[in-house]
Write a structure and sequence with these properties.
alpha/beta; 7-stranded mixed sheet; 33% helix; 27% strand
Length: 187
Amino acid sequence: MNEDEFARALLAHERREWQNPERILAEIGVKPGITVADLACGPGFFTVPMARIVGRVYAVDSSKTMLEYLRSNLKRSGIDQTVVEIIESDVTNSNVPSQSSDIVLFANIFHALRNRKEFLKEVKRISKNSGFAIDIDWKKAEDDLGPPLEIRLSEDRAREIFADNGFDVVRTIDVGPYHYGIICNSR
């Protein structure tokens, strides 16, 4: 699957049937006036609905193609371009201002990161002291969707990695049948 096909798959109507971004954002506490960093934002599955709610979104992705889709989706949605700052960058060096984000969201990427320790250092750097990190990722279970089973992280393994890197799990959230959702804060 090339990047164009992947971007379209990430935005597919069928995905909304099993993963409702508005419901998930409400459950994690996305509300007016806060700042959110969406790391590996892709074409904007979470970014666009967030931008309708919050004061500021930093949308970070290393893919030019994904960011082109995001720009198009923001424009089509009539979102004020000053609400979303689009940053083309690697998520381990995001260029998001230090201590700027109330929430740092990363969906469907934690399992695939090469250097989770560096990534979590970056999450801490850009989070406000009272901020939260939200990991939404594929359950380690056989199904027809998502990445191969052997590269997925179980929820327990993800929790261990967070704990080893100075994060406490605050709670888990329901993010659909194929994913788990973990809300953490840093120590």
